[in-house]
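Onboarding guide, step 5: your first structure request.
Type a short instruction followed by the sequence, for example:

Predict the 3D structure of this protein.
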Amino acid sequence: MKSLKILVVLTLLLVVSAFAITQIDTFESGYEVGDVATDFSLKNVNGTLVSLADFEEAKGFILVFTCNTCPFAIANEDRIIALDKQFKSKGYPVIAINPNNPEVQPGDSYEAMQERAREKGFTFPYLFDENQEIYPQYGATKTPHVYILQKEGASLMVRYIGAIDDSARDEATVTKRFVVDAVEALLAGKPVEPSNTKAIGCSIKA
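The system replies with C-alpha cells like these:
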C-alpha cells in the first residue's frame, strides 16, 4: 500500500513537472506568425498608460522593441519614424517599446526615454516595459525587433516577425524593406512574404 502511494505521488510530480516545462518552453519561445497576441498596458513617455485597445480605428500595429542605447536601434530610429508617418494614417501606427532593464543599461531609463523621444520628435508612443513582462511574451530578443499585428475581429494576429529591412545599420544600402512590404501586403489583402526574417541588433538587457 505504501509503495502504491509513493508511485501515485511520483506520477503526479512527473505530470506537474512536464506541464511546468511545457509552460516555460511556450513562454520562452514567444509568439510565432499566426498566433494571437495579447494586449498590454504600459507607460508612455508622456506619463499616460497605453494599450493597443486604445486605438479603436487601427487595422493593426507595427510593434517595435527598441531602446535608446543600442547602435542598431539608433541607426533605425529615422526608419521607425518614417514607418509611422507612412502607415499611421492607413491604420497601422507604430508602437515602440523599450524592454531593457535600466539597472543593467542606465541609458535606457524612463527619464532617458523621455529625453530621446523629445530629441528625435517621436510621432508614436514610446512605452516602458518596466517589469520586463511583455518582451518575453512576444519572444523579442533584440533591439530592434519588429512584430506586425493585424486586427481580426477582437483578436490581434501576428503577421510578421523580424527586421525592419535588410540593412541593420546603413539605410543607404537597403534593398529589401520587409516591414513596408508586409504592411502593404496586409492592406492589399495579400499574404505576407516573407513573414519571418532575422532580427539583427543588441541583446535585450535583463
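Each response can be followed by summary notes, for example: Residues 1-27 have pLDDT under 50 and may be disordered.
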